[in-house]
Structures are given as structure tokens and as C-alpha cells.
């Protein structure tokens, strides 16, 4: 497939203003009749009308009621330029939903029919100008068997419904908002709904509905609460009300991603809708809140204002991730709970986006070229994109940002626009801000790929009472971008007194008075120096507070400095980071020899954290888990995954042993006695208790003691909620305890009728810490388990992605077994579902980063896949980039 370039953008030769669709729904053969009101775009030269179409069976084409000549060119239907500037095009075609395993377009799942159109799925339903800048008003009539499909849904408002002969019925929907085709949706299935009315501030009532399979209704309460909270939050924080009479969410078992923001009719992976205390963990409850929020917030940022072209994807995704992150933080409540959210977001960014930015798939937040757009729904576009929006927020302040958002909607409501339009609106609403003053420089965050390296060196001058901070940035060469310019980096910071532990007043040279003890330094050059005066005490700089920019920070601090920050910093993020860096330093030092002996000061500091009565349990849990193997690997040039695993395991094992009594104390102290509620206050305790239990079981298994494994098994059996049950099971499995096998068996028997819980069962086994190749062997065995299938994306992910992305030591084997497994599954999956396959294919895109013998073996596996001639363009793009 050819490369599509951002700089080649042209507006379309035709606009489609109205779409009238009638679908005769049937899983084997659905008939689609489409009537399009089309207008020539006067800005483009006269030319044939070229419509996208994929896997369609064309029956007829009429222009203004007359038959016309047409031809097929690749995946395009080409109709010679109609003479009129405006005309009606009628198309009739058929599709086969039950054969559609790509889960893009119209497909069958569990007896129902569902659509997924973003990015280019609409062309798999009918011929169309399937691009986001073509916005039309849709009227949709659905017809189908009333028994099979009692519920018929599409976007907007239900205008008519009724009976047809032969046991069929119909529903007619009209969506008054012009929208791009990627936001079209329909559902035909046997479903039931939880309903709730909400009143917005303008006094209007709106109907909220969540559709699920019969029997799942009791698992929709949390999703409904999250939806109501989202409606209230967007109106309160951004003045953005619900603009629809009804807002529907439909849950479906087979879904390629988390959820989809179709106008008024969001489609969701069941994973992000269904939850009960017995079947979902605290993390699942949080995931539901954030995804329900995310899709709901798209109604304004994405749907009311959409993307001009797919290169602008971050316009809606980066902004909407930022909004859902803020929503989750506001919902979490306390400052400490907010910090925990922030740390979790940063962990996610560093685990997946930083490696992406350092590998062959590195691309700017606003990419320049792609072959398959589905490959660019990346953590760069989403998570780094959200960080770019967050930096704007930091630079203009909370109020300024809200003003910028209003201006953005005032200017662009109803339009398809670009990332530039967004940045311009935020800047124009805040003309005196550092953002507006340096807008062109700031926008390098959109155009340059790669993670900037920021280094900081500080010096205290006792005689002059000054602290000099020198900051410099290096912008690394990345795939397709050899030359880089400095970027604007907001560095939120403070100074912490080395002896007093106090936050010191900050006064820069030339300033008349100090301005508090926290500020944001704005870096605009490669190297800059900041001199603080009236500094009464030697101090440690606390830098990049709240992770104020997505950069790699080399702060030049010593262990002693970090211990000061760990004990005293007022910023919880930096405090957490100091602990992580203490651990990271030890892991990296141990890598060359492969042996690690924890020193007393470190153990003492960790004990201090665990026992500190002023810290929240959720924070402690995050602070006491050492950096992941993936993150450690990122800090080295030639990764030996087995070595990284051994060293990190050794650290965990020693923490388990040396803090044994402290873990026992923590476990006892953090039991939740009240009934289960998915709230931060309870989930923090459960998280810390589960970590403590895992440590206790680990140490017990290592020393041959059976008491804690027995207790864990008991807890596993008796648990009243999934978080505790899974925590106890995980403690046994991860420690390779003898009781792990009976526990796994029991868990399977208990939940064999709960697909989302079975996913956990697969995932838990695929992610267990490797020991003597047992985990890999078990994963291969699980492939043959009767409950395993590649056809369901959740199930496929729970085994394949868990192993290849989250279990480096099980996957990267000296005998290359993991790579053979990978190559076979990529090919197998690609024939079924290219989007899923290309995701999985990325597990080896950074083979160059590996040490021998892994590197050569991985390369060979990639080359073997590349040699195939039948790859989808999605997978081919990933594989060929990996070899470039
Ligand atoms: N916009 C969708 C993602 C569509 C992915 C297409 N491959 C979900 C979301 O970001 O909210
Ligand atoms: Zn999104």
C-alpha cells in the first residue's frame, strides 16, 4: 500500500451533505441502500467522483435516478463527473457481516450485529467519501427480524418504528448533527437497557441508556454512575452540556479496542461496561470510569469539532485523554488520590510511549506519513498528545485553559480542523502567556518525534546564598527525523532545604521579591541557567514536579539528595520518583554482574515509606514496587531481558525478606472491614494489602514456610470481591507456590461462564514471573485450552499481549522459542484480524535494542514474517518499518 502524506492534503472534490441509508439486516447477507446528496467542491478542479469501498458487492448505481457508467480502480468506485453541481447518488450493495472477522465495518457478535467505523470502516458498509472532513446529516432506516434483533439502534433520535411482514420490524433514526462517516454506528441485537434521566443546567432532560445482554444488567450500575458523573463534570468544568435527547452506550463482547465515541451511540468493549464486586477489580472499576468519561467527552472534543484528516488524530485523542485524566483526578478527590492518578498516568506513558518514541515506529504527535491509519492509534498520539495538552494547561493555568477551550468552540464548532487550530485558540485566549509568546517553538511538540533528554545540574553557593540551576536539553535523532531543534519545556520545581526539609522561597536573580516556593521555569533554549537568590540553606532541587513535561530527566542527584526528597518533598510525584530512582540506580548498577545486594540505607528508606503514617496506602503501594523490567530495559542500550529479570526479582525477593515483619504489619493494618465500594479510600488499602500478601507469600515459598501460602489460599477462597480474590491468587501464582495449581483450577471452575473473568485467568498465568521456562511452557499450553480463541480480541490479548509485552523474561528466550511463537501467531492472527495482528506484531519492533543472542534470533523471526506475501497492509507496515 502507498504511503499517505500529511503535506499532500487536499479538500475533497465533492461534499456529501445528506445520507439516507436503509439496511436490510441479515448476518449472512445485508442489503445496503444508500442515497447521498452530493455537491461539487468549487475549490477543486472538475474530476470524477471517487468513492472508497472495501469488501462490498455492488448491485447498482444511479445518479439523479438515471443509470450511469462507473468503474473500479483498486478499492475505489469511480463515477464520471456528473454535469450538475449538485446531484443525488443512489447505491445499492450487499455485505456479509458474519464473514467479517476484521471487526471493522458491520460484523456479527454473539447473535447481534454491530459496527465499528473509525477510522476507515464505513467503506466496508457502503461506497462513500470515507474521510473525516466530509460531514453529513444521516437518516438511517434499519429493518430486520424482530426475534433476532428486537433492538435496532443508530445515531441521533428515533423518529419512527413499526412492524413489517414476515416477523420483521423497522426503526428509523435521524441525527441532526452533521458528522463524518467514522462516527456512524448501528446495532441490531437482543439486548436490555439500564435507563436513567438526567437534567442538565439548562433545565433539559436527557435519557441515558446502557444496553447489554440479558443477564448483565446488574453489572451496569458503575458504568451508569460514571456516565452521569461525566455529564455533570463536563458541564461544570468546561461548560460543555449534553447536546442530545438521548445518549446510548452498547456493550459488545468482540471489539478491537476499548470503546468508540459514535455520535449518541457509543459502542463499548464489555470490559469497560460490566462490573460487579464479585467479577471486577478496583482497576477495572477505574478503567470503566475513565473510558466512559473519555468517550462521553469525545462528544465535544472529536464529534462537535472533529479532525480535518487523520494526521490530526491527536487533536481529538490527546485532548480527550487529557480530559479523561482530569476527570479521573477530580473524581478521586484528595490531593493524594490525585497524585496517585498522575503517577499511574506517567507510568503508562513511560512504559509504552517512551519505547515507541525510541524505536522504528517513532512518530510525531501529529504524524507526517502513514500506510495504515489504524497503526497510528498509538500511545504517542494518545498519551504523549495528552501531555502536550497538559503542558499548555500548565503554561496558561486552569482558568486560561478553560478560556482557550471556549474560544476553540466559538471558532470551530461544527468544523473539521487541525492541531494548529487548537493550539492557536489556546494561545489567542491567553495572549500574554509563555505559550502565546513562544507558540511556534511550543508547536515543535507536534512536529518532532523522540523523547527530549533534559539534564539539570545545581550548585549552592554558601557565601552568596545563591543556588544556580543549569538546564540543558538534547533532542534525539529518531526514525525519519535526523535534525532536531530545542523544544519548549516547562519545568515545575521547588527547592527543598537539605537540613530543614523545608520548601524554600524562590526568588530569581533580578526579581524584587520571592514568589512562593513552587514555580514553573520555561525552558526555550538548548541550555539555560537560572540563579536563585536569598537561598538561606543548602538545598536539593525538586524538578519536573507532577511530571510537567514528557522528557527523560537526568537530575544529577546523589542518593543522599534523593533521600531528602523522598522524606520531605511537598510534591508527591517527585517524592515517588525519588524512591523509584533510588531503586533504578541499584538495578542498573547490578546489571553488569547480575548480582544485587540491597544496602541498609535503601531498605531503611523503603521501610520508612511503608510505615509512614502520613502517606496514603495507594501511594505507598506505588512507591514500594520497583520500576518494571520494561522500564529498566529502557535505560540500557543493549537489553538482556533475562539479566534484567534476575536482578529485579532479586530486589523484590530481598525487599520481601528484609521487610518481612513490616509486610505482615501492613497486611494486618490495611484490611477493609466495610462492604465493597470502588472508591479510592478502599482501593488503596486493598492494593497495599495485596502487595504485602504477595511479598509474604514470596518470602515464605523461598524459605519453605507454609503459613502464608495457606493464608493466601484461604483468602482466595473466602474473598468477597474480585480485587482480593485475584490478589491472593496472584500472590500464589507469582511465587510459584504449590497451592497455585489448585487455586487456578478452582478459579476457572468458579468463573467459567464469565468471559471477562476468564480473560484474567489467562492473563495472570501469562504474566507470572518466569522461572525455568515454566511460564512460557504454560502459555503455549493455554493456546490449546478449550476456552482460548484468537477470534475474540480480549481473549487473544489476555494471552498473547500479556506474554509478549508484559513478560519479557518469559518471551525473550535464548532458544528463540518466544520468537517462533510470536511469528506463528502474527501470521495466524493477521488472516483473521489485521488490526489486532499489527498490534501484536509490535512486540518485536525493537529487536535492535536487544543484546545477543536475542537480537539475531528476533531479527530472524521478523524477517520470516516479512517474507510472506499475504500480509495485510496494517501488519506489513509494522514489519517493514521494524526491518528498515
Ligand atoms: N476513537 C476510538 C479509537 C478508534 C480506533 C480505530 N482503530 C476510541 C477512542 O479513542 O476513544
Ligand atoms: Zn479517544
Automatic annotation (TrEMBL):
Cofactor(s) recorded in Swiss-Prot or TrEMBL: Zn(2+)
CDD domains reported in the protein's UniProt record: M1_APN (cd09600)
Pfam family, one: DUF3458
GO molecular function, one term: alanyl aminopeptidase activity
EC category: hydrolase
Residue ranges constituting the Peptidase M1 alanyl aminopeptidase C-terminal domain according to the UniProt record: 559-884
EC number: 3.4.11.2
All residue ranges annotated as the Peptidase M1 membrane alanine aminopeptidase domain in the record: 223-431
Coiled coil: none
Catalytic activity: Release of an N-terminal amino acid, Xaa-|-Yaa- from a peptide, amide or arylamide. Xaa is preferably Ala, but may be most amino acids including Pro (slow action). When a terminal hydrophobic residue is followed by a prolyl residue, the two may be released as an intact Xaa-Pro dipeptide
Family statement: Belongs to the peptidase M1 family.
Annotated protein name in UniProt: Aminopeptidase N
